[in-house]
Specification:
about 425 residues; 8 helices; mainly alpha; single chain; coiled coil; SLIT-ROBO Rho GTPase activating protein 2; Substrate Binding Domain Of Dnak, Chain:A, Domain 2
């Protein structure tokens, strides 16, 4: 019972620790929710006050702006979810642990009463066994004592008979009359002694028989009580104690604890599912980041800016209405020579443009390779060993290491500078 009492105390302490843990975790979740709400409201207010309201129309939202809006919505969603999680901890899970604790204490008190009754019954059986054993030992001791006295009487009888025989052999004859009188007296004395011894032997034989019978009955009672007691002890330790723990002390404890912890799992898994749904929407928006569509959308939004102007019309001067080239002599030969010069120049520029085009394409591809490198996987940072210590992060050795960043940035800026220099020199 002391062991079960200690187990009950440990159980109550465990349930109290669980309550304190979830109460503290609820506070943390609520603080986190409030901070997320503040973060989202800060930038949503900034977004609401922007001058470019047309960017926020569904049909005109640019793909990066859509990612930004979804990111802010995800923060607000996480804020609501963590508020819900805190509420579940406080108003659902913790009351469950309180109820389990109360039930465990109440059931243990009842179990203690049942266990005490079982122990009392067992002690009663043991006391009965002890009493029967004492009776058996007493009767068996009496039987042994009676047997010893009987043997002593038998020895006295044998001794008396032997003594009588020897005395008869040692006697010498005197006068006939005196001899006869002496023999009669001696025989009378011997017969009297033998009868006394025989009578004592009979009494002791009867006493031994009586005690032997009592000892046998007492031993039988003792053996039967011993078998019953062993069965009771076996039943107590093998069945009663196990049933006391299973059907009294632990009645509903593990099932109730299972339900409380499954409530926690359900809340956490639904929180994760909600987060995944929001992240899936952001991932879809990230997959739809499209520079071409954004460019087209931007030009459509500012059509008056990006629309090509009207062609310049020939403005005649002082009534000169000729609006086409004149190839009359001597202008014709000059135009022909100029045409040949332009064709030659165009051929040279075409060759140069092909080389510049190849250089520009290679440089542009290099820039695109730099800015599209897949360095965003940080899954290694969330792998844990059996000792629950974080595995050494590889991020510091790759993308986020200062030497790596400096080198990448220098290469990118140098390539960009070369690209725009070529663009400025040769035009678009």
């Amino acid at each position: 019972m002391k062991c079960l009492d200690q187990q009950c105390e440990l159980r109550v302490q465990l349930l109290q620790d669980l309550q304190d843990f979830f109460r503290k975790k609820a506070e943390i979740e609520m603080d986190y929710s409030r901070n997320l709400e503040k973060l989202a409201e800060r930038f949503l207010a900034k977004t609401r006050s922007t001058k470019d309201q047309q960017f926020k129309k569904d049909q005109n939202v640019l793909s990066p702006v859509n990612c930004w809006n979804l990111l802010l919505n995800q923060v607000k969603r996480e804020s609501r979810d963590h508020t819900t999680l805190s509420d579940i901890y406080l108003n659902n899970i913790i009351p469950r642990f309180v109820q389990v604790s109360e039930d465990s204490g109440r059931l243990f008190k009842k179990s203690k009463e049942v266990g005490q009754q079982l122990q009392d019954d067992l002690m009663k059986v043991l006391n009965e066994l002890y009493s029967v054993m004492k009776t058996y030992h007493m009767y068996n001791a009496d039987s042994i004592s009676a047997q010893s006295k009987l043997k002593e009487a038998e020895k006295q009888e044998e001794k008396q008979i032997g003594k009588s025989v020897k005395q008869e052999d040692r006697q010498t004859p005197r006068s006939p009359d005196s001899t006869a009188n002496v023999r009669i007296e001696e025989k009378h004395v011997r017969r009297s002694s033998v009868k006394k011894i025989e009578k004592m032997k009979e009494k002791r034989q009867a006493k031994y028989t009586e005690n032997k019978l009592k000892a046998i009955k007492a031993r039988n009672e003792y053996l039967l009580a011993l078998e019953a007691t062993n069965a009771s002890v076996f039943k107590y330790y093998i069945h009663d104690l196990s049933d006391l723990i299973d059907q009294c002390c632990d009645l509903g404890y593990h099932a109730s604890l299972n339900r409380a912890l499954r409530t926690f799992l359900s809340a956490e898994l639904n929180l994760e599912q909600s987060k995944h749904e929001g992240l899936d929407a952001i991932e879809n928006a990230v997959e739809n980041l499209d520079a071409t569509s954004d460019k087209q959308r931007l030009m459509e939004m500012y059509n008056n800016v990006f629309c090509p102007p009207m062609k310049f019309e020939f403005q005649p001067h002082m009534g000169d209405m000729a609006s086409q080239l004149c190839a009359q002599q001597p202008v014709q030969s000059e135009l022909v020579q100029r045409c040949q010069q332009l064709q030659s120049r165009l051929s040279t520029l075409k060759i140069e443009n092909e080389e510049v085009k190849k250089t520009m394409e290679a440089t542009l591809q290099t820039i695109q390779d730099i800015v599209t490198v897949e360095d965003f996987d940080v899954s290694d940072c969330f792998q844990y060993s059996n000792s629950m210590e974080s595995v050494k992060s590889t991020v510091s050795e790759t993308f986020m290491s200062k030497p790596s960043i400096a080198k990448r940035r220098a290469n990118q800026q140098e390539t960009e500078q070369f690209y725009f220099t070529v663009r400025e020199h040769y035009g678009f």
